[in-house]
Amino acid sequence: MLDSLFKPKSVAVIGASTRELHIGNRVIRNLVEFGFKGAIYPINPGSDEIRGIKCYKSILDCPDNVDVVHMVIPAKLVPQAVEECGKKGVKNIIINSGGFSETGPEGIAIEKDFMEKAKKYGIRMLGPNCQGIINSDPDCRAYCNFTFTRPDPGYISIVSLSGGVAEVIHQGFSEMGVGTRFYASNGNACDITIPEIIRYYGNDDKTRVVVTYVEGLRDPVNFMDVATEVAGKKPVLAMKAGRTSEGAQAAASHTGGLAKEDLATDLIFKKAGIVSFQDEGELIHAAAAFASQPVPKGNRVGLITNTGGPAVIATDVLVGAGLKIPPLSGKTRNILSEKLFKDASINNPVDVLATGTAEHYRAALDAMMDDDGIDCIYIGLVTPFFVDTDSIAREIVEVNRQRKKPMVCNLMTDRRQWTETVDILRKGEVPCYSLPGAAARVMCALVAYRNILDREKGTVKDFKDTDKAAAEKIIKAAAAAGRKMLSAGEVYKILEAYGIPAAPWRMALTPEEAVKAAGELGFPVVVKADAESIIHKSDMGGVAVNLKDGDAVKMAASDMKGKFKTADLKFFVQKFIPGGLEIIAGAKAEEGLGHIIMFGLGGIYVEIMKDVVFSLTPVTDAEADEMLSSIKGAALLSGARGRKGVDREKLLELVQRLSRLVTDLPEIKEMDLNPIMAFEDSAFAVDARISL
Ligand code: ADP
Ligand code: MG
């Protein structure tokens, strides 16, 4: 429970200062000017009062309980101050000062020291090296923060490690005239974490939208659990920065090595049901709409505009994101042809014409609200001088107040002249955007959350026939021998233990043995050179396919023996099964998270097309299905242009078995099956690699 932090009844500032430009002064000023409802206790042994408020020599002298203490003192003085706060029974401390783990070993030691003291007294710590919190609720008005944006009460709650980004986002809402509810920036996050704050926001009835910015996830599993829980209740909007390697580097030095590979974070966001953004402007725009609009029931958009062109731009964005712009019902069209101007367009998009009046907008809005074929409404409004735009705005606001279906508005105007129109829409909580594409992208985000709520999460299939013990034994033996790459024989035995079908094979030590093995398998066969040092076999001349008889096998194997002068060389003899669609599937370990499973088109396609998709373990049946459907070459799986489709069920099962395999065997660092030969009624791995 973070109530005493976010809804404090009293705030003390250790390191309060009479100097106007000092954080220890600014925090007090912010509390006062924001109208904090509780008591303020400046602490400074050298002053009697600060900003007209009585000052105390020590936290121990404060007359009452203290919920939140700001510390604005040098790092080395913090542990002692925490000890005193403990004696006073302080509940939370926000450390604004820097000089801790972000600076090096000395700072890390100080952080450890004060954390021990905080734990002893049960004090919760925010930061250090952070801004603090804001609560805009009229009952509390806590501005425990040294920044400058003063929010109106609202429904959006923000959390970010980075104070700078939290402020950017906050500022964005402020510019749009959208209020916020809670704000928190927790800097080094040595105690209170982002997931803990997200959960708190999730349980807060007045928070309608949670907005977070991350540069890296310290505890990805915990983040995913909490985000999944909260995203099921209300939209969680997130942005991850550090996408380029240069960005990741900057983030790493910013957050002290927190940045992880980007892909994993994207997959966590996806699995948790977070609406994710790559652009902070889009995130801010979308959050503003989530704060005031209901979640759409579906993806069918009705457009009403008084100027055609911008609606065309919006249409492209909406349709491009998979939203639908369906024809309007006969009833709606009848109403529109009766009420709008004769020349108005009564198809979707509806164009009421530039001369369209408030009554026209109202009629179109009401008709779309009543049309069962429409889930959400996009309004285009340019403000010509010859119509009463204030009245149009009032009608839009009135319909918006019904909260029946979500709406976004592309308001095209000179905001310095049409101030009244702008103000009416703002106060009426109609999310307005200057650009049609921006408004449309917000609509797409609203629908994305609908899709998240409706999506099939699926179940993790419990395969009863897997033999974990057999696979573990192989891996333990290889690890004990200090080997990082498993031999072909070991790899295929592990596949067998997990029911992953592979082409029949034999291992041979000599060319003669290879001939014998080929006879047992039946021709034609493939011979592959197998040794720890041989990674890309075909590049190095270590693969001979379509060998039709013993002589061919003997020649191929002898040839390899001459080529690879390595003592551990063996011959992997495999049934030749040509003509399938080459598929790749693989897994890669992500520290603290599990594995990322990959699926896509294999063989030469991998290099050229890079047509692969990813999902986090454990992969559910629904997720496996989505993976198969979302590769660019999905049509190849179901058959195209005279080519037969492949066995989808087998591939789905294979992906799920692979997920189970690496989940059971976390020692596996990387694994790939490339290619898997997929046919109409079967699929076999013909090449497999596992590294530990
Ligand atoms: P590597 O990937 O190490 O170069 P592979 O074992 O994948 O070696 O073989 C290279 C290519 O040879 C495969 O992509 C596939 O096209 C073909 N191939 C290998 N084994 C078989 C087989 N058993 N049946 C049919 N084609 C095969
Ligand atoms: Mg291969």
List keywords for this structure.
Rossmann fold; single chain; 6-stranded antiparallel sheet; 7-stranded mixed sheet; binds magnesium ion; binds adenosine-5'-diphosphate; 29 strands; alpha/beta; 692 residues; 24 helices
How would you characterize the overall build of this protein?
- The chain is of the alpha/beta class and 692 residues long.
- The chain has five domains: 1-129, Rossmann fold; 147-292, Rossmann fold; 295-454, Succinyl-CoA synthetase domains (Rossmann fold, 3-Layer(aba) Sandwich), CATH 3.40.50; 456-503 and 577-692, D-amino Acid Aminotransferase, Chain A, domain 1 (2-Layer Sandwich), CATH 3.30.470; 511-573, Dna Ligase, domain 1 (2-Layer Sandwich).
- Helices cover 40% and strands 20% of the residues.
- It contains 24 helices and 29 strands.
- The chain binds adenosine-5'-diphosphate and magnesium ion.
- Magnesium ion is lined by residues 674-675, 687.
Radius of gyration in whole Å, from Cα?
Answer: 32 Å
User: Average pLDDT value?
Assistant: 94
Q: Indicate the low-confidence ranges by residue numbers.
A: 255-260
* Cα shape: flat
Distance between the termini: 42 Å
Bound molecules: adenosine-5'-diphosphate, magnesium ion
Give the CATH architecture of the largest domain. 2-Layer Sandwich
Which strand order spans the largest sheet, edge to edge or round the barrel?
9-8-11-10-12-13-14
* CATH level 3 topology of the largest domain: D-amino Acid Aminotransferase, Chain A, domain 1
Please indicate the count of domains: 5
Major sheet attributes: 7 strands, mixed
How much of the polypeptide forms β-strand, as a percent range? 15-25%
Q: Total number of helical segments?
A: 24
CATH class of the largest domain: Alpha Beta
| Total E-strand runs | 29
Helix content: 40-55%
Assigned CATH superfamily of the largest domain: ATP-grasp fold, B domain
Structural class: alpha/beta
